[in-house]
Specification:
alpha/beta, five-stranded parallel sheet, 36% helix, binds [cytidine-5'-phosphate] glycerylphosphoric acid ester, nucleotidyltransferase, Glycerol-3-phosphate cytidylyltransferase, nucleotidyltransferase activity, transferase
Length: 129
């Protein structure tokens, strides 16, 4: 089984997130997910509806996810890839090319995003309800 690693905020968890995580899990067989902490999301300029504890619990509850780790900053990816002996680092293709510098450590893949759904759209919908 190959170890796959990814990161994300996963706010208002939706089928776009699930599609991506299941596709990543299928690539290797063991999927580790770094969930952005509330502090890191502030750094990313992302306001979340759901706090870290609940976002991490939802992701950890998924059948296709083997482990959840906190993502506290942009710089931890290299250390995580080494620490967890990662074979494949993957993200949705809105990140295409952004993590190619990790290619000396492991395979880097960008998978298609799921169109028509995003946490931002859900928040917009909630606003008008
Ligand atoms: N995603 C997707 N389809 C969507 C929405 C998101 O495939 N409709 C993917 C994104 O491409 C990303 C993952 O789901 O790979 C998580 O998305 P976000 O929660 O928006 O995460 P992001 O803010 O991109 O954080 O260090 C990396 C960052 O933590 C990534």
């Amino acid at each position: 089984r190959k170890v796959v690693l990814t990161y994300g905020t996963f706010d208002l968890f939706h089928v776009g997130h699930l599609n991506l995580l299941e596709r990543l899990a299928d690539l290797g067989g063991k999927l580790i997910v770094g969930v952005s902490t509330d502090e890191f999301n502030e750094l990313k300029g992302k306001r979340t509806v759901v706090d870290y504890q609940d976002r991490a619990r939802i992701v950890a509850g998924l059948k296709c996810v083997d482990a959840v780790i906190p993502e506290e900053g942009w710089e931890q990816k290299r250390a995580d890839i080494v620490r967890y002996d990662v074979d494949i680092f993957g993200m949705g293709h809105d990140w295409e090319g952004k993590f190619d510098e990790l290619r000396d450590l492991c395979e880097v893949v960008y998978l298609p995003r799921t169109d028509g759904v995003s946490s931002t759209q859900i928040k917009e919908l909630l606003r008008v309800l």
